[in-house]
Amino acid sequence: MRILLESHALRKAAIVYTTSDLAELRSYTDIDIEHEAESKIIDINDKFHQKIMHATHNQFILDTYQKYKSFIYLFSQTVINKRRPGLIEEHRAIVDALFNRDIELAVSLLEDHLKKDLEFSLYYLDFKQSE
After folding, report:
1. Helix, coil or strand: residue 53
2. Rounded Cα gap, residues 57 and 124, in angstroms
3. Which terminus of the chain is more exposed, N or C, with fewer CB under 10 A?
4. What is the pLDDT of residue 128?
5. Contacts of 76 (CB under 8 A, 6+ apart)
6. Are the C-beta atoms of 5 and 65 separated by less than 8 Å?
């Protein structure tokens, strides 16, 4: 569901975002996850994805996304706690595609990013249960 919602939001962002919006989104990619506190990384990651979602300006979609926040937080916490490789680099690539107004590439990169988060998190969540 998250992939559907964020992909839709990103398509909208690619149309409505100003240079200032894109610069704000890029600012959330200027973090060194190897040396930053986990809580700050989680916050920055959330801001990145929330910025994309708010491009919809659609309260129904935002409310639906909000209903999934506890699951999203759990997956984000796992991804960040375990320092999933490529996390911030993927955010940067999405922003670069948006700056270039390559909507299809941006959406494809976002979908791949969210799938990697899901697979990575499920692996560790399943691993914890088997211990």
Report:
1. helix
2. 34
3. C
4. 54
5. 42, 45, 46, 117
6. yes
Residues of the chain with pLDDT under 50: 131
- 44/68 Cα distance (integer angstroms): 18
Q: What is the pLDDT of residue 35?
A: 85
Give residue-wise pLDDT tens across range 8-24. Answer: 999 999 999 999 999 99
Give me the DSSP letters along 75-101: HHHHHHHTT-TTHHHHHHHHHHHHHTT
Radius of gyration of the chain (CA): 14
| pLDDT at residue number 34 | 81
pLDDT of residue 33: 81
- Residue pair 95/109 in contact (Cβ under 8 Å)? The answer is no
Give the separation between CA 10 and CA 54, rounded to whole angstroms: 10
The two three-digit tokens of residue 92, written as one number: 């940067």
- Name 26's Cβ contacts closer than 8 Å, sequence gap at least 6: 92, 95, 99
Q: For helices 19-27 and 38-54, give the axis angle rounded to 10 degrees.
A: 160
